[in-house]
Amino acid sequence: MEKENLAKQIVEWRRGFHQYPEQGFLEMRTASIVASILDELGFDLQLGKDVMSAEDCMGKPDKQVTEEHYEWALQHGAEKKYIDHFSEGYTGIVATLDTNRKGPTIAYRFDMDALPINESDAADHFPNQEGFKSSNPYNMHACGHDAHMSIGLGLATLIAKNKDSLFGKIKLIFQPAEEGTRGAKSMVGADVVNDVDYFIASHIGTGVPHNHFVAANNGFLATSKLDISFSGIASHAGGNPEKGRNALLAAASATLNMHAIARHSDGTTRINVGELHAGTGRNIIADQAKLKIETRGETSSINAYVKEQVESIVEGAAKMYQIDYDLEVVGEGISCHCSEDLASVLHECAQGSPTIEKSYLEQNSTAGSEDATYFMEAVQNSGGLATYCIFGTDLAAGHHNERFDINEETLLPAVEILYHSIVKLCGKN
Amino acid sequence: MEKENLAKQIVEWRRGFHQYPEQGFLEMRTASIVASILDELGFDLQLGKDVMSAEDCMGKPDKQVTEEHYEWALQHGAEKKYIDHFSEGYTGIVATLDTNRKGPTIAYRFDMDALPINESDAADHFPNQEGFKSSNPYNMHACGHDAHMSIGLGLATLIAKNKDSLFGKIKLIFQPAEEGTRGAKSMVGADVVNDVDYFIASHIGTGVPHNHFVAANNGFLATSKLDISFSGIASHAGGNPEKGRNALLAAASATLNMHAIARHSDGTTRINVGELHAGTGRNIIADQAKLKIETRGETSSINAYVKEQVESIVEGAAKMYQIDYDLEVVGEGISCHCSEDLASVLHECAQGSPTIEKSYLEQNSTAGSEDATYFMEAVQNSGGLATYCIFGTDLAAGHHNERFDINEETLLPAVEILYHSIVKLCGKN
Amino acid sequence: MEKENLAKQIVEWRRGFHQYPEQGFLEMRTASIVASILDELGFDLQLGKDVMSAEDCMGKPDKQVTEEHYEWALQHGAEKKYIDHFSEGYTGIVATLDTNRKGPTIAYRFDMDALPINESDAADHFPNQEGFKSSNPYNMHACGHDAHMSIGLGLATLIAKNKDSLFGKIKLIFQPAEEGTRGAKSMVGADVVNDVDYFIASHIGTGVPHNHFVAANNGFLATSKLDISFSGIASHAGGNPEKGRNALLAAASATLNMHAIARHSDGTTRINVGELHAGTGRNIIADQAKLKIETRGETSSINAYVKEQVESIVEGAAKMYQIDYDLEVVGEGISCHCSEDLASVLHECAQGSPTIEKSYLEQNSTAGSEDATYFMEAVQNSGGLATYCIFGTDLAAGHHNERFDINEETLLPAVEILYHSIVKLCGKN
Amino acid sequence: MEKENLAKQIVEWRRGFHQYPEQGFLEMRTASIVASILDELGFDLQLGKDVMSAEDCMGKPDKQVTEEHYEWALQHGAEKKYIDHFSEGYTGIVATLDTNRKGPTIAYRFDMDALPINESDAADHFPNQEGFKSSNPYNMHACGHDAHMSIGLGLATLIAKNKDSLFGKIKLIFQPAEEGTRGAKSMVGADVVNDVDYFIASHIGTGVPHNHFVAANNGFLATSKLDISFSGIASHAGGNPEKGRNALLAAASATLNMHAIARHSDGTTRINVGELHAGTGRNIIADQAKLKIETRGETSSINAYVKEQVESIVEGAAKMYQIDYDLEVVGEGISCHCSEDLASVLHECAQGSPTIEKSYLEQNSTAGSEDATYFMEAVQNSGGLATYCIFGTDLAAGHHNERFDINEETLLPAVEILYHSIVKLCGKN
Predict the structure, then answer these.
(1) Shortest Cα distance, chain C CAs vs residue A111, angstroms
(2) Ranges for the Peptidase M20 dimerisation domain (chains A, B, C, D) (predicted)?
(3) Which of B229, B240, B314, C215 has its CA at 20 to 30 Å from residue A213's CA atom?
């Protein structure tokens, strides 16, 4: 009965978050509600700038966007008691339950941000059928972070309920801005995992079938997200072409040469100029060009190699056309390798689950990137163990698709597997 | 006294047009008012599709934009009696006064369209001081076509008044979409100057000082305005780069190679990719890229050479990346040389004007382009004479600037010079 | 004693071949000597065009080069009885010993060609010390094919001696033009391995230490070697730039875009424009450009993907500049995976060798390419087994270096391991 | 009779020079013979380094080439008495006849170098018919400098003969390395025209018909000849692509961007990458790339604009690929405008010639370049007059063609016109 209540509650949370999606560093309403629930469950809370290093935030929206969104959040059900901690766009939360009994410190990471996607209004799209479609146009939880948060709160519920039987310290980390790999680094920079012995991040879906489980997802590509702008001099293309300094040509040249960066013999690389916008009129030599690019590498050092070539190419292109440029890192993720010993614990938990049909100790896919890797690296570097696990689910459409949806029956077993990992790791000392 | 009234009327017309600027092929309100005045003055009117060849229109807005603007025009003072002739965006007017006395046919061209510029709200901007600033945001008569139309209507007034002393036939051509060199060709295509012996186009300003006059402005560069789009296949840049067909790279490569088109030994060439917009996300291989470009040449055949290279390069770039492309001509102007005999007539008229301080028979500037050249070529090809004259004026700021303004005292002398040319050419037979 | 004689003989052969290096499709002297020895040992010989498909030869020298080299071979010790089989540059040999006893057919591949490298004249270079340095300037056995042939002839000696105790049929394949992956395909095209049950190719060195052995070398990258030429129209760059059709610009553009070919998510790719030569004078628009390029892929299909992009890009670049192009495949290799069952046999033979210190069942290196893969694929496709093994040796300098040299003590054990594989595979039926 | 002898002599000289063509800064045999003749005629000689500034020589062959050519010259009829003045490749001559009578100083420039062209061996090629074809393979007087020198020596003959009737001072300047616009600047740098009042350069042919004459050829384009090399790091393209630093890609990128240099509104520009040679092997990332380029501009300042863009682009391309570069100016010419007063004198002389059918005061062609412009500018800057005249002739084929040839009947009238200009300018004081 209690289990049924929890299952119902988790789904309710998920749908609530789904209906009010907020993008990275703007999860003010979302974080205020998460904080409220965790507070009520008895967790100690650290909020906002206390758990985020401002200089490590990447790709944070500007002040105006942040302030406008604050107004939106206020008008759309934010918890007033907590929202002011988040009003400047530092929306991270660390909720700690210290058993005050000797034992390890274990941390779980959940991400909170949504995507700039306009949710489908198709009649057969489940959120429409059930009435919890995004009410924030061009914002959508199309990656499952709504589910992640509800799993995190379900886990918090079980922890709170059973706290007298646990040892050590449990930290629940609710991270902003995972999309674009922008938020994790700032929480690591605020030392939130310095004391952590075991770190577990998790994701739903990603192609793993419903009721399947992966205990260690290795193979995230390191990545850098870069915004580049070239700034030249406009001129009338008919009247004075020689007086212009052509930012569009610099951008076109940089683009071609970036895509021509040499492959690396140590492993996979990727480079993409995904967007190029330049110029203001047909008969004007363009003085502005903006590029959105990303690099990836099988390891952090391979990605660093690609990024260094990008930097040289951009500087060279600006030099060619005698113009200025700016290169801003707006997101970054590193590669990481899960700790097998910790993955084994989760693997066992999953194998013990009545709903999980198949559990895999590890999986090596190579295309995606994640900034949970920053937490993982930090924990491993200080002697702890870290892993990244995946709860399979049915997907109505792929991640980042306007018709993305999950099977909500995945949620409760996910909570239970994570809770069992606590029991295994902190249940006795 | 009468002259004072005319002067006042001209200024009033000009300010009225200035306040309701409409862009090319959307001059519905404007044309309806022009038609109404000409009708009242006793001219025979041919309107809309009767004087425009649909297939020769270039860069015409799509149906939705046209329909929406029609609603706007209706709500902003369009003359209901005439507007339906223009509702589909064919906004040309030919007003004819046939004296029914043997004599030559003489035509004058006036252009009507405004620019996509947001007029300055500076307190010292004259239209603000006098309260006739554009009421249509991001639309502005910043090139002087409002003045051109008022000169045309002033000329019509004098013609009507003096029609009994004139010979031959007089045609006043009000052309849409001169900006981007888009509209003239369609009127030539509708044969409106087939019967014309003398053709005179005019422009205000262009750097010529107030009370100076140029009877023959040679040296317009032939030009083509081209919109190019590349259409590829999107793909996740990390997950499946090989499945994409990269429109952004095709556009970048086309851009570089177009700027590298070889110079021509017969004369000046120009090429500019003024805008490039491609891609929808950093981590997506771009499936769409759009370029706005223009070519120019000292002669039509030199411009044709540049345009041909562009066509080959665009086709080649699409082939390189296995993608589709579309190349649309959205504007075109040719080169032309004024007929000296006709220019001499205007030169004499100007020299006879009490306000003109200096008249030049000819001037050869080479950077600009004009599609009145289509009329000129057509008239010259059928044995007539054609010229393009300039009425100098004080400019508050350059053409196409948000603070552009003219000296309204230029208007009446312009009307008088043009009227005297009629007297010289058709006053007696 | 007999073994000592064989060891001495092998070294003598190796030095003889080393002294008269001949490049691919020109191994006339070499092949004539190989044929002579095999004939004397009692093998049935198929020579030249009988074992090579003319249309499958890639990158074959032209007629004049071939004829001139024929004269050179005649003057430098070629065996007159055999050389005319090779005079047109079809220099392959298949030597068969049929025991006429029921049993499998087993084939061994040895390659014969040298490299366009000028051998070092350093005093401490072993071939100089021993007086067998290349006597053919700018030609050198710098990859070890001289050793391969001597191993092949040593193997032939043991086979001939022990033929009465063997079963089945043994084929020794001496292949031309392995460098540039040009010759194997033509022998496969002549069906020389159609009846083969077991196929074994081998190489010396490649970084494997002396007295180490690798039974299965997987991971050859599939590759294509392409010669591209662009053919435009020359013109004086000052006087008539517009009359040129610029092959140099087409080549530069193709080069950049080829290097920008998108990575493949299924595995490693490579692309290199290694040489670009264009133009005949500073003031002439270049009408000729030649590129030497290679593509590679972790599998044949990945390499095919890269090659297809190259083809599109080259065609597109030619289209851009309105010029002609030619794309010639001058070498090609595929990927392959060794048959583990056959590799196990060799692994056992090596483990049984008194000189081999360490044997590896398999190794996966990914940078190199080989055209023995064509034989392997053909044998495997018809149900046979194939492997590619490596005999480690000390290298004085890396492969393709002017000071390359091997440890000749590697040779006899190599012969013995291969011979033992025959005993294992054909020794009893 | 005497005139016939002179005509015969001039032709003999021309054919002699034609048979032994020498390229720029290597005209050792040629200069030694010119010096010998002028010495005999009584001129004062200044030779080699005395009339050339070493640091102003551009594109001079290296020491080895120079020394080897010295040997060639010695063996092919050089005048031993003079050749050592020229042995280091400083091959200029200034021959002065000072009448010691008060009067102006007048200078004539003749160029001496040949081209790297292999003269035609067609039977109907006149030099073959008459047996004076180039005996120096891949060297040819295909621009008419052989004729220029014979005209200069003919003029010297007349001056010497008539010296008692002349006033002032006459300087005959024999310049090396006009091809590639490399030699004149060094003679100007040695102050050889500092004292000159009238300077006359001349050329034969250039499209002007036989027996036509142009007194002032304006419109030479200013030009820069640049050799660019990029120096990167080689690496195996399959094994370690990331370790290379690709000079070929830098060169390709620089090439495209140089051709895309914006046109100049003040006048004609030209840019050409005429040669690009890069790389040493298909499977090696190219560490070397060499480009031969030229820029031109209607004026020296327009050419300077183009050259500056080239410099930025080359620096930027090197930066892009993290490699080194070198940019060497190997030739340079400036624009110039002939002094009309001096041209008028020549125009009159030509009009007085019995053979000249048509004389033009001036002609403005714009494609070619000349470094006589350096002399002209220097003379004009110090208050003198300068012009560049053309003697029309029949051409068997265009300049720089392997079948180039002139009509030798052009030579004597050319001598006479130039001599008459002396008479006009220095005949009386």
Answers:
(1) 27
(2) 227-319
(3) B240
User: Which has the closest alpha carbon to B175: B373, B414, B10?
Assistant: B373
User: Is residue D429's pLDDT more than 50?
Assistant: no
CA distance C139 to C129: 19
C366 plus C417 within the same structural domain: yes
Instruction: Quickly state the pLDDT bin for A239 (edges 50, 70, 90).
Output: confident
User: Do B39 and B187 belong together in one domain?
Assistant: yes
Q: If DSSP states are collapsed to H, E and C, what string results for chain D?
A: CHHHHHHHHHHHHHHHHHHCCCECCCCHHHHHHHHHHHHHCCCEEEEHHHHCCHHHCCCCCCHHHHHHHHHHHHHCCCCHHHHCCCCCCCCCEEEEEECCCCCCEEEEEEECCEECCCCCCCCCCHHHHCCCCCCCCCCECCCCHHHHHHHHHHHHHHHHHCHHHCCCEEEEEEECCCCCCCCHHHHHHCCCCCCCCEEEEEEECCCCCCCEEEEEEECCCEEEEEEEEEECECEECCCCHHHCECHHHHHHHHHHHHHCCCCECCECEEEEEEEEEECCCCCEECCEEEEEEEEEECCHHHHHHHHHHHHHHHHHHHHHCCCEEEEEEEEEECCCCCCHHHHHHHHHHHHCCCCCCEEEEEEECCCCCCCHHHHHHHHHHCCCEEEEEEECCCCCCCCCCCCCCCCHHHHHHHHHHHHHHHHHHHCCC
Interface of chain D toward chain A, CB-CB under 8 angstroms: 239-242, 244, 246, 249, 253, 256-257, 260, 262-266, 285, 305, 312-313, 315-322
How many angstroms separate the CA atoms of D295 and D90, rounded? 26
The subunits that touch chain C, with at least 3 C-beta pairs less than 8 Å apart, are: A, B, D
Do A186 and A302 belong together in one domain? no
ipTM of the complex: 0.89
The tally of domains found in chain C comes to 2
A250 lies in which domain range?
Answer: 222-333
Residue A236 neighbours by CB under 8 Å, 6+ apart: A283, A284, A285, B367
The last residue of one of the domains, among D273, D306, D333, is: D333
Cβ–Cβ below 8 Å for A316 and D312: no
Domain CATH code at residue A290: 3.30.70.360
Comparing CB atoms, the residue among A221, A225, A273 nearest residue B248 is: A273
Q: What is the pLDDT of residue C429?
A: 46
Asked if B209 and B153 sit in the same domain, the reply is: yes
Rounded to 10 degrees, the C-alpha dihedral C407/C412/C417/C423 comes to: 170
Report strand pairing: D385-391 vs D198-204. Answer: parallel
Q: What is the mean pLDDT of chain D?
A: 95
Do A100 and A147 reside in the same domain of the chain?
yes
D298-329 tens-digit pLDDT: 999 999 999 999 999 999 999 999 999 999 99
pLDDT digits (tens, 9 = 90+) for D110-140: 999 999 999 999 999 999 999 999 999 999 9
Q: How confident is the model at residue C364 (pLDDT cuts 50, 70, 90)?
A: confident
Residue D421 has pLDDT above 90, yes or no: yes
Q: CA-CA distance, A343 to A325, in Å (whole number)?
A: 45
Q: Which of D257, D265, D269 is nearest residue B263 as measured by Cβ atoms?
A: D269
- Cross-strand partners of C97: C170
Same domain flag for B25 and B170: yes
Q: Give the largest Cα separation in chain D, rounded.
A: 81
Nearest to B294 among A180, A282, A286 (CB): A282
Give the C-side interface with B, CB within 8 Å: 239-242, 244, 246, 249, 253, 256-257, 260, 262-266, 285, 305, 312-313, 315-322
> Which pLDDT does position A366 carry in this prediction?
61
Question: The domain spanning residue D357 has which CATH number?
Answer: 3.40.630.10
